[in-house]
Structures are given as C-alpha cells and as structure tokens.
Design goal:
Oligomer: single chain
Strand content: 25-35%
Distance between the termini: 49 Å
CATH class: Alpha Beta
Shape: globular
Helix content: 10-25%
Structural class: alpha+beta
Organism: Amycolatopsis taiwanensis
CATH topology: 2,3-Dihydroxybiphenyl 1,2-Dioxygenase, domain 1
Protein name: Diguanylate cyclase
Largest sheet: 8 strands, mixed
Number of helices: 5
Pfam families: Glyoxalase
Order of helices and strands: EHEEEEHEEEEHEEEEHEEEH
InterPro entries: Extradiol_RC_dioxygenase, Glyas_Bleomycin-R_OHBP_Dase, Glyas_Fos-R_dOase_dom, VOC_core
Number of strands: 16
Strand order of the largest sheet: 2-3-4-1-13-16-15-14
C-alpha cells in the first residue's frame, strides 16, 4: 500500500448544549474556536471546530452539539478517549485548574513513560491530558485563559476500544501506521515519526459492552492526507482491498472519505488543505457563522434555527 498518513487530522464528537460546549473548550481548556459552521448533513445543528490559532491538522477536536441528543455509551466499536498533548510537568497545574472548575479528574498516572490526567467534559466525553516526555514543537493558542507554559499543544492520541485486535491492527497497518508498543491489553500504533498527534492506542476489551454513539461520545476519527490527488489514490487502494469507502466529499475546509475499521469505529481520511482561512481571515476565525456555497441560499432559515452562541472576546483578541 502507498498509504502513509503522517498523523491525526481531527476527532469529531457529539455534544449537547452548544453554549456549554463552547464555554468549556474555550475558557476551561483554552482552545480557539477556529470555525463556526453547521453540520453539512444536518444544517440545523452547529459544527464547531476547536484547535490552535489557525486550526492546523492534528490540533482539532470538533463537535456536532445536538441539544436534545440522548446520552451515548462508551464501549467497543468506538473511540473511547481523546487525548491532548501538554508540556511536561504541567499536569499538576491542570489538575488544580480542572478541579477549580468543578471537573472531576483521575489521579495522575504513568504509562509508557507518559504522565496522564483523565477527565470528562460536561457531556461525559472522556478526555485526557498527556505530558509527553519529549518536546512538542507545536505552538499553543495564546488565549489569556491558560498560560503558554501549560497550554494544550494539540491532539496527542486517540484510544479505540475493540473486542479483538487483529483486524483493527491490520487496518492501521494499511494506513501506514507502525506497531510500536504494548502494555497489557493496550497496543500502540504510530504514524510517520510518531510522537504527539500521530498515535492511536487499541484497547482490547472483549467483555465490555458495545458502545452507543450519541451525546458524549466520539463520532469519528480523521487521519491526514497531504492533498486531494493522494487522497484519491488512497481511496482507490482501500476499495481494491475490499473496504466500503464513501465517495470524496467536499467539507469546505478539507476533502473527506469515510470507512469503518473492522472493530466498528468510523474513520475518515481528510486533506490538509485548503484550511480554515479559505473563507475568513486568520484573525476572525470562528467569529461568524460560515456556510458552504450550497447552503448560503438557506442562511436566513439556518440562522433562525440555530441557538445564539456567545463567544469570549479572547477568541479574536485583535478584534476585541
């Protein structure tokens, strides 16, 4: 296979109230809202993208916040933990911050030389902050809420829960990932040179219940493709291998294909380009509701349907 992704592009989850979602990820975790748009398949629902200053691939956690969505259930056949990378020696600071915000956290634990702090967002989505012992060169978003020396650098890894590992492991090898380590029933695979933003853990839990994708769970995990031509080539290879893959879909800020790994988790391959400044300047990212051209004729109806979203001034400091 010629497929060799160099890491995670984004993780998309399902949330509840959009204002509560924005308050937590912008104010508590200190991320930037880099795009306020809608679910292209359900325009009556926001699609909110959180990441670094420009929303670079590998920093993004995105949400479909359905206010009336039923509560999901973590289990096999889905991504069960989304982890962010933070500087070494920052977890004590983060534990104090989260506890001060009313968030229950785990003890700081160590696995494979990495300290980690696990907690849940207001809708029950399981998150972790991981202090990777090596330097993460990605710049944090300078937001005024979280000091730069502690701030999130981007995605660290995702954890997928499966009943059996063989077929899932083979799928990740087809995507160009390499098996790098095992800790009991947890197998780690890395893309490219490895490190934060390029890892997936496969957790083998045969006795766990089947997951239910709804509020508080991950909808899909996206991997990076450098450009559309490469994506098309990868799609053809996946189809030749017998995988059921969607056509290439225009997501305005990237192009996407979707398919399921054998354990059940929905995967995506998304292009790095064109990026989030294609329809608004860098300094104004996330400030206004952006719609793709095919939804612009329905803007008035969409804006009337969506709940009002109040963003902190720090999301666009030069404009505040």
């Amino acid at each position: 296979m010629s497929i060799k992704t160099n890491g995670l592009h984004h993780v998309t989850a399902i949330g509840g109230d959009p204002q509560r979602n924005a308050d937590f990820y912008l104010r508590t975790l200190g991320l930037r809202l880099v795009k306020t748009t809608v679910n292209f398949d359900d325009p009556g629902t926001y699609h909110l993208y959180y990441g670094d200053e420009s929303g670079k691939p590998g920093t993004l956690l995105t949400f479909f916040p359905w206010r009336d969505a039923p509560r999901g259930r973590r289990g096999t056949g889905q991504a069960t933990t989304t982890s962010f990378s933070v500087p070494e020696h920052s977890l004590g600071w983060w534990r104090d911050r989260l506890v001060g915000a009313g968030v229950t956290t785990s003890r700081i634990t160590n696995r494979d030389g990495e300290d980690a702090l696990t907690f849940q967002d207001p809708d029950g989505l399981q998150l972790a902050l991981v202090a990777h012992p090596q330097h993460d060169p990605r710049d944090p978003w300078d937001n005024g809420h979280v000091p730069a020396e502690h701030a999130i650098r981007g995605l660290h890894s995702v954890t997928l829960s499966v009943v059996t590992e063989d077929a899932t492991a083979e799928m990740f090898r087809e995507l160009g990932l390499t098996f790098t380590s095992q800790d009991a029933n947890r197998l780690r695979f890395s893309a490219g040179d490895g490190g934060p933003g390029a890892m997936v853990d496969v957790l083998v839990t045969p006795d766990a219940p089947r997951g239910l994708v709804a509020n508080g769970t991950v909808h899909h995990v996206a991997w990076r493709a450098p450009d559309e031509a490469t994506q098309a080539e990868w799609r053809a290879e996946l189809v030749d291998r017998g995988h059921s893959v969607t056509s290439i879909l225009d997501r305005q800020y990237f192009r996407s294909i979707y398919f399921r790994e054998p354990g059940g988790t929905l995967l995506e391959v998304a292009t790095d380009q064109p990026g989030f400044s294609v329809d608004e300047p860098l300094l104004e990212l996330g400030r206004a509701l952006k719609l793709p051209p095919w939804l612009e004729p329905d803007r008035e109806q969409i804006e009337h349907t969506l709940p009002k979203l109040n963003l902190p001034r720090e999301n666009n400091p030069e404009l505040a």
